[in-house]
Amino acid sequence: MSSRPWRQQKEVFEVYQRLTRMLAPHIGLYFVVMAAFAGVTALLGETQAAAGELIVVAALLAAYAASALRRRREADRWLKEIMDSMDQATRDSTLNCPLPLVMFRPDTDEVVWSNDRFLRLVGGQERMFDTKLADLAPAFDSRWLLEGKNECPDEVDLGGRRYRVFGDMARPSAGNEENLLATTYWLDVSELADTRDIYKATRPVLAVLLLDNYEDAIKNQDEDIRSAMLSDVVRRLTRWAEQSHAAFLRLERDRFLVLFEEQYLADYKEEKFSLLDSVREVVNPAGIPATVTIGIGVDGDTFDELYRFANLSVEMALSRGGDQAVIKNRFTFEFFGGRSKETERRTKVKSRVMASAMGELVADASCLIVMGHKSPDFDAAGAAVGVCAIARMKGVPHYILRDHVSTPADDLYDRVAAMPQYQGVFLDSQEAMLRADSRSLLVVVDTNRPEQVQNRELLDSCNKVAVIDHHRRAATYIEGADLNFHEPYASSACELVTELIGYLMETTDLLPGEAEALMAGLMLDTKNFTMRTGGRTFEAAALLRRAGGDTGEVRKLFQTNLNDAVAKYGIIQNAKMYRRDIAIAASSHSVGRVTAAKAADELLNIAGIGASFVLYPEEGRVVVSGRSSSDTNVQVILEALGGGGNAAAAGAQIPDKTVEQVLAELHAALDGYFDGEDSGEPEEA
Q1: Does 381 lie in the same domain as 357?
Q2: In degrees rounded to 5, what are phi and psi of residue 346?
Q3: Residue 343 covered by a domain
Q4: 385 and 325 share a domain?
Q5: Range list of β-strands (E), 53-107
Q6: 166 lies in the same domain as 222
Q7: Which of 335, 617, 644, 647 could form a disulfide with 633, with the two C-beta atoms 3.0–4.6 Å apart?
Q8: What CATH number does residue 115 fall under?
Q9: Are residues 123 and 251 part of one domain?
């Protein structure tokens, strides 16, 4: 039986003892005083009077002892009656419990006793001795009782009904663990659970469908081809919406709204949003396929909130390259698709608008502080220098965050710091916090994730923030920025900053050293203009060349010493192939981020390798560098490990794990990526 009645009896007895001690007078002190008086009387020579007093004291003491003994016996009898009545009440309440009740041994799962209601629950068995509870209720797990909990965390299915199970366990004294006894009460919540399931299944889900390359697909096409393509796409969208009996509405020429019930969302997930592939089958005569972006809002309290979630999902999908589905709830994002290569869809109009907004923000700021991601590379450092060039022309005090730690950008920083115009520009985190005020502008370059910036406290403390980045957006990103120049189709952050410079200042106003810093970032992220390059990339490079940037001087920044070269080829030598065309090199010792990145790049020059990953330990974490020259999207793969980047170059930093553990996680992420392509599994972040 449960240990609760025995605890109640013990508590009653303890209360009785405390009351007895509090209320009982200290009679013994009185007898001592009277005996003392008798002694004083004897010392005064009154021996007869003293003898009489002692006789009276002895008589009173005997009477008190008899009275105390009688009261103690009455109290013991009263306490026994209470305990007996509690035992009887406990037995009666157990036998007549209105809920199904079963007692069992949690260590052996052996049923000890149950009431009639539980017998009827499991089919009316008459005898349950030597019966295992798991045989009667296979879905029941008693581990929560051993963990000290009083309620089963999950509902239990039994006999076509659903139950919430409550219970307690009698814990015996040490050394008697085999006598553990659990008592459980089964509450039927079938109707409530069914109502809850119906409510969840019928909750509204709002989706926004966007033909994200509408202009590119119909550009320079005849009217009949345009009409046919659009009609074909709309027919596929309508057929997809009909699967969930949804309300389908066209908002604009390239934007649609779909409203359906949540019960159909699981089917869409399971089929990996086949609408993406279906729309891609519509191809114009020039060979450009139509693509659609799906933004879905779930778990909103109002339709307005659902619509806001859906629009945020669309923005997130577009920032990651489009042609994918994104689900937004009140807590996070969930991604599906996004494995296709990005195609450049940028306009100079946006760059001009962003340049104008950036110029106003810089002009209104009391000072400008620039920081990149943790352990900044040439792209982050070059972009920071370019932003400082804009601030210099605006006459605004400007600073670059540089803590006293080794980074891949140290050579570039040292070269810039030697320029007269950059004396006193570099600050550490503490100095930057002191410089910042309510009108300071913080510019974050080459990252959009708050957990990856150089100093999170500085980001949280600044009222005005601008973000300039080219990486695809992840589930976490810097929200509420005053300016967000985010172009995942750009080759580098330096390319975006160069475009801003082209609108905000004359080419001759850009210092040669600043132009070379920006060019270094361009060359780093494009692998010397061989990867992720577009027409805008070469336009930016031409502008920097006209500003005095010397490619020969920039090349010196990429030179490596003999030890690093040996380390790089040592990494390549230990590389192993995995699955299709994936090369993975795991180093048991630190090799440096630059060396690892160069090794990953070098692996792509080997025939038969389409993607490469290099892993190495560094200061309590494992760093992973991923590169791709094929259709393999390394960003999607490394997002599963908490990293990010873009389709061709990505990285991750995993703390508190060994290289072997991260290698196993990378294998699992690769398996999930390639198996997901075949089976339709979603990619989540």
Answers
A1: yes
A2: -130, 155
A3: no
A4: no
A5: 101-105
A6: no
A7: 647
A8: 3.30.450.20
A9: no
Q: What is the CATH number of the domain that holds 358?
A: 3.90.1640.10
Return phi, psi of residue 441, to 5°. Answer: -110, 120
Torsion angle of the four alpha carbons 60, 62, 68, 74, in this order, in degrees rounded to the nearest 10: -120
pLDDT digits (tens, 9 = 90+) for 66-94: 877 776 676 566 556 555 554 555 555 66
10-residue block means of pLDDT along the chain (685 residues)?
Answer: 48 56 59 77 79 81 78 62 55 70 81 80 65 82 84 86 87 55 88 90 93 79 85 92 92 92 91 89 84 92 92 85 87 76 63 89 93 91 95 93 88 92 92 90 92 90 92 80 86 93 90 93 87 85 90 84 83 86 87 83 87 88 87 84 80 88 90 65 40
Residue ranges making up the domain that contains 147: 101-197
Phi, psi of 150 (to 5 degrees): -110, 5
Q: DSSP letters along 288-352, please?
A: PBP-EEEEEE-S-SSHHHHHHHHHHHHHHHHHTTSSEEEEE-SS-EEEEE--SPP-----HHHHH
Number of domains in the chain: 5
In a domain, 685, yes or no: no
- Across the chain, mean pLDDT equals 83
Please name the amino acid found at residue 214: Y
In a domain, 684, yes or no: no
Nearest to 246 by CA among 227, 263, 226: 263
Locate 67 and state its tokens: 């009275």
In this structure, are 193 and 251 located in the same domain? no
- Angle CA 342–347–349, to nearest 5: 155
DSSP string of 538-591, one letter each residue:
HHHHHHHHHTT--HHHHHHHT---HHHHHHHHHHHHT-EEETTTEEEEE-SS--
pTM of this prediction exceeds 0.70: no
Same-domain pairing of 257 and 389: no
Give 26's Cβ-side CA count (13 Å radius): 3
Question: Do 553 and 566 have their domain in common?
Answer: no
Tell me, yes or no, whether 227 and 329 share the same domain. Answer: yes
Look up residue 19 and give its DSSP letter: H
pLDDT digits (tens, 9 = 90+) for 130-180: 678 888 888 888 888 888 888 888 888 887 889 999 988 875 544 455 567
